[in-house]
Amino acid sequence: MGPEMMLLLCTLFLLGARGISARDTGGFVQSPFRAEVWAADIQEPRGLVIDDAGDVLVVSRGVGIIALWEEIPNGRVDRTTVVPNWDLNHGIAIYDGWLYASTNTTVWRWRYYPAQRQNAIGMEIVIRNINNDYQGRPLEGHATRSLAIQRGILYVSVGSGSNVDADSYRARLRSFDLASIPWGGYDYAQGIVFADGLRNEVGLAFDTQGRLWGVENGADELQRSGLGGDIHNDNPAEEMNLFDGPTGTFYGYPYCWTEYDLPSGVGLGRGTQWAWPSLMNGTITDNWCREVRNNRPPEITMQAHAAPLGITFYNGSNCGSFLTSSSSFSSGNEINGIQDLFSFDCEYEGDAFVALHGSWNRNPPVGYKVVRIRMNATSGLPTVPVTRNVLDVFGRKEPLAQCGDGASQSCFRPVDLKFTAQGVLLVTSDNTGEIIRVVQDSSNGKSPGSSSDASRIAVLSGYISAIAIVFSSLFYHA
Ligand SMILES: *[C@@H]1O[C@H](CO)[C@@H](O)[C@H](O)[C@H]1NC(C)=O
Ligand SMILES: *[C@@H]1O[C@H](CO)[C@@H](O)[C@H](O)[C@H]1NC(C)=O
Ligand SMILES: *[C@@H]1O[C@H](CO)[C@@H](O)[C@H](O)[C@H]1NC(C)=O
Ligand SMILES: *[C@@H]1O[C@H](CO)[C@@H](O)[C@H](O)[C@H]1NC(C)=O
After folding, report:
1. pLDDT tops 60 at residue 279
2. What would you report as the CA-atom Rg of the chain, rounded to the nearest whole angstrom?
3. For residue 136, pLDDT beyond 80
4. CB under 6 Å to ligand 2: residues?
5. Does ligand 3 lie within 6 Å of residue 283's CB atom?
6. Residue 192 vs residues 154, 188, 239: alpha-carbon distances, Å
7. The pLDDT value given to residue 283
8. In what order do the strands lie in the sheet with 92-95?
């Protein structure tokens, strides 16, 4: 075999390496990020987790749990169903050899090992009767039951039964000890009320210090005379909450709400706590809501109705590293060429990323994007006050007029998001049936430092050894 053949083989391998280049997402991408469709044609992908082997598990509504993985080296994304259960609707977690997922009444678990890629067996009930205890009322209201697990404790978030319930009985985060699951599962009402007064805390995530955070979807149809009448377009704020207080800390719903943007002259500033008009009485007042011992306010506010459904923190895994070269495009401006792709830069370590599903009852629609919240590594809190805007990462381009409820199929609606061990962000979009991959683009001069060069050399030497293996096997068989 001559040098020409060697060159041809090399080229084939390098072409393979950039096989992960994918379709444009058709939206805006904030520098230095870059977003591509990693997997498509998934029926309503919702909650997302990544196992220790790197397989991506997603709850696909009406299907069950699907595992997806990238073939090395051609980058093709393969998939298989690991749990065929069409009632699973959002929540998913992996912990200690078990895969957990939820329907609107039940939390189930199955035996699971990384890269299993076949039907999970050993199904058990962890929690049952999620709705049946609501003061004798039938199943109603928000249907997702988000799951988060740490140190043997399962946290389950259940949203309100209606827009504004009479009390917070449903709207809570409960915790369950996985070491002592009773036969047949816990009755939901047996859970400890870990945090109270959370209208619909869909997104849950642990930060790099191991503290639990959540993102909350605020109420609709807010009207309050004296504050501008119909103020629902920009109030109440969506919230990012920290659960580090005493067990059972109360976060406001349904009595208190958070100001996002009130008409000038009446507003007291973003983040201010107010009482819900129909529930105000001698006890529940604006002043009552402003007492932190009655009502814990959020750490971050977000645009009303933006609908935060997912939150994750970047732990800095593989930060600032060269990933691969990819044939490139740039949104709305096709450029064909080869571009170097990088993992998230180390400056994002500790930061929170939130998926905003987008509004259904606001004109014009808002949300439909992924945002970043910078965190201070020392304090473990956001670097900016509650009054500041969150930072855009990527999302759907304006105009959003065809989004909203009954949105057209092309409307990108992010649900959940997780970082891979390679420092790449994956985001589900239920409406488009996609998983989007977000990386960083070297052309912004952000990260290619010496460590990146080192990893580029590592990747190249990986190819060279692969070529050597192919060579030796060719010779061996010849
Ligand atoms: C609960 O889930 C079942 C099965 O998927 C579905 O038929 C029912 O409509 C759901 N109920 C609510 C209130 O979401
Ligand atoms: C006000 O409403 C709250 C919540 O429903 C209730 O606990 C409280 O007793 C009421 N206070 C008065 C003075 O009516
Ligand atoms: C981070 O938090 C620490 C401790 O609260 C504070 O001293 C420091 O100024 C903060 N740094 C930034 C960049 O906000
Ligand atoms: C950081 O997150 C990645 C996945 O995003 C995980 O593989 C890795 O174990 C985590 N590292 C630590 C120190 O927790």
Report:
1. yes
2. 24
3. no
4. 281-284
5. no
6. 11, 9, 23
7. 97
8. 92-95, 98-102, 107-111, 124-128, 186-187
CB atoms within 10 A of CB 32: 17
C-alpha 306 to ligand 1 mean position (Å): 24
Q: What is the pLDDT of residues 64-74, one digit of tens each?
A: 999 999 998 77
- Between CA 403 and CA 383 the distance in angstroms is 32
How far, in Å, are 59, 61, 113, 329 from residue 144 at the CA level? 12, 11, 25, 36
**Residues 423, 319 contacting (CB under 8 angstroms):** yes
Residue 158: which of 125, 190, 193, 202 has the closest Cα?
202
The pLDDT of residue 339 is 76
Instruction: Tell me if 198 sits within 8 A of 140, measured CB to CB.
Output: no
CA 3 to chain centre: 48
Tokens standing for residue 447: 């990260």
Compute the distance between CA of residue 311 and CA of residue 417 in angstroms, rounded to an integer. Answer: 7
Of the listed ranges 44-53, 292-301, 336-345, 468-477, the least confidently predicted one is: 468-477
CB 56 within 8 A of CB 1: no
Minimum-distance ligand 4 atom for the alpha carbon of 423 = 5
> How far is ligand 4, taken at its centre, from the CA of residue 315, in Å?
6
Q: What's the whole-model pTM score?
A: 0.88
Cβ-based neighbours of 215, under 8 Å, separated by 6 or more? 201, 202, 203, 238, 239, 240, 241, 302, 308, 309, 310, 311, 354
Q: Which ligand is nearest to the CA of 379?
A: 3
In angstroms, rounded to a whole number, what is the distance separating the alpha carbons of residues 105 and 123? 16
Q: Which of 133-147, 221-235, 351-365 is most confident?
A: 221-235
Nearest 5°: the CA angle 211, 212, 218 is: 145
- For residue 8, pLDDT over 80 is answered with no
261/270 Cα distance (integer angstroms): 6
Cβ(319)–Cβ(325) below 8 Å: no
Question: Probe ligand 4: pick from 51, 315, 343, 419, max atoms within 8 Å of CB?
Answer: 315
- In this structure, the strands spanning 33-39 and 229-230 are unpaired
* Cα of 317 from ligand 4 centre, angstroms: 6
Closest CA to 430 of 407, 453, 449, 461: 407
Q: Determine the distance separating the centroid of ligand 2 and the alpha carbon of 198, expressed in angstroms.
A: 19
Q: Which of 227, 198, 251, 237 has the alpha carbon at shortest distance from 386?
A: 237
Residue whose entry in the numeric block shows the structure tokens 């196992």: 51
Nearest CA to ligand 3 atom 14: 383
